[in-house]
């Protein structure tokens, strides 16, 4: 019995967006959003930022394109993220801080609309390649600007905050957000293989690593190690098979274990704290305090969950409730998975689990895509995008990354890579505009 499969359409043969159309405007707006991802200051009302001008433009132009062309829009994470939104809305209305929670739910809806718009425009012929390359080139430029600003002591560009000491934030406003952006950017550069010339690309890697160092973030270093380790395992699997990949994983684990046994991490922390070097003092030197604070925050958050019940206390309420109820350490949840449970209840936790499973399934499809076929023809190394997504999934255990705009860019790019190109067939009698 012969099973016939529908061949993948050749992306190069499909029509490109014409100038002066809503589709072309949507592509340009999406590319602008890639460029301005780190431009979050000055901040506007409702946690908005300058980059959101391009985010909103992408949503508007994709909506116009779909309305005038008769094109149906796909929404790859609608069920899972929708469940998180519904759970957040219910918890917010029933919770003690409804205004705070409903504002967060509104931001969730905007983020979902942005993801849907980006997904559909990125599936157009050649657009995924344009967006990944734009992200890669622009991030190198921004990292270089930050490095030059640090060497020349240009304070407005360094982004130094009184609350964060001498950690350089650029225009990202938060050291963890900044380090996560630089890590993701480095892995996108690897995935897109842009710039094309290896020497320029390695210069970009150096600038991005330097930017990570300037953020003085332990989390950023961990995320980079996770991403690079995953890429090493993928490369080993493709060359040596499953046995080779498992052997490498065991070897790396054994090496780390042996190193920690010979030189205990507490000794490394003490050495860093006493080194007199600001980077070591503010990164490794403070790691013990950061760990204890996060452990206390987890304990306090679970206390809130037991107090407020299975519906949750409402999105973005953790810090204010900890303050109102006189807890000793009042901060946001700093953990996407814990926040889903404590702020959005059991339904929110289910939505988060579903989102992780859907993202993992799509990532596995993206990794298995034949090179040069379908959307994989537009991204030189799809494993780089999956590595970045994995790094952010781990980062979600010690910081709330789900609302980072570039995390949703990764989710969308992986979803596009996991999908099949479709023939461009507008509704009869209506042109693509």
From TrEMBL:
Keyword Transmembrane: yes
Pfam families: Wzy_C
Keyword annotations: Ligase, Membrane, Transmembrane, Transmembrane helix
Domain O-antigen ligase-related: 206-351
Principal subcellular localisation of the protein: membrane
Compartments it resides in: Membrane
Membrane topology: Multi-pass membrane protein
Positions of transmembrane segments: 75-93, 105-122, 134-155, 175-192, 199-215, 221-237, 242-263, 345-363, 406-423
One annotated GO molecular function: ligase activity
InterPro entries for the chain: O-antigen_ligase-rel_domated, WaaL-like
Name recorded for this polypeptide: O-antigen ligase
Protein source organism: Amycolatopsis viridis
């Amino acid at each position: 019995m012969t099973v016939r499969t529908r061949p993948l359409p050749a992306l190069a043969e499909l029509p490109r967006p014409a100038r002066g159309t809503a589709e072309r405007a949507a592509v340009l707006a999406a590319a602008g959003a890639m460029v301005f991802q780190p431009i979050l200051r000055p901040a506007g009302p409702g946690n908005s930022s300058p980059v959101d001008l391009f985010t909103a433009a992408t949503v508007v132009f994709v909506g116009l394109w779909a309305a005038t062309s008769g094109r149906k829009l796909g929404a790859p994470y609608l069920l899972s993220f929708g469940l998180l939104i519904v759970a957040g809305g219910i918890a917010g209305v029933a919770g003690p801080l409804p205004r705070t929670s409903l504002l967060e739910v509104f931001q969730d809806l905007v983020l979902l609309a942005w993801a849907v718009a980006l997904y559909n425009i990125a599936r157009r012929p050649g657009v995924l390649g344009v967006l990944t390359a734009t992200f890669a080139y622009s991030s190198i430029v921004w990292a270089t600007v930050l490095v030059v600003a640090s060497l020349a002591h240009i304070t407005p560009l360094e982004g130094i905050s009184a609350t964060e000491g001498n950690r350089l934030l650029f225009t990202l406003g938060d050291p963890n957000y900044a380090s996560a952006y630089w890590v993701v950017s480095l892995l996108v550069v690897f995935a897109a293989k842009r710039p094309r010339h290896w020497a320029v690309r390695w210069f970009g890697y150096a600038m991005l690593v330097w930017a990570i160092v300037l953020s003085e973030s332990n989390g950023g270093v961990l995320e980079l190690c996770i991403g690079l380790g995953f890429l090493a395992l993928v490369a080993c699997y493709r060359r040596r098979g499953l046995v080779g990949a498992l052997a490498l994983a065991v070897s790396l684990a054994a090496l780390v274990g042996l190193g920690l046994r010979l030189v205990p991490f507490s000794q490394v922390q003490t050495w860093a704290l006493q080194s007199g070097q600001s980077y070591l003092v503010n990164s490794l030197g403070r790691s013990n305090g950061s760990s204890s604070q996060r452990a206390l925050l987890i304990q306090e958050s679970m206390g809130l969950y037991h107090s407020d019940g299975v519906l949750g206390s409402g999105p973005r309420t953790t810090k204010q409730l900890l303050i109102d109820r006189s807890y000793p350490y009042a901060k946001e949840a700093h953990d996407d998975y814990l926040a889903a449970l404590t702020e959005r209840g059991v339904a929110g936790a289910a939505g988060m689990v579903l989102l992780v499973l859907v993202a993992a399934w799509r990532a596995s499809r993206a990794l298995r895509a034949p090179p040069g076929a379908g959307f994989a023809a537009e991204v030189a190394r799809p494993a780089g995008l999956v590595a970045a997504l994995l790094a952010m999934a781990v980062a979600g255990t010690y910081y709330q990354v789900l609302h980072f705009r570039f995390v949703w860019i990764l989710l969308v790019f992986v979803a596009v890579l996991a999908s099949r190109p479709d023939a461009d067939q507008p509704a009869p009698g209506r042109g693509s505009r």
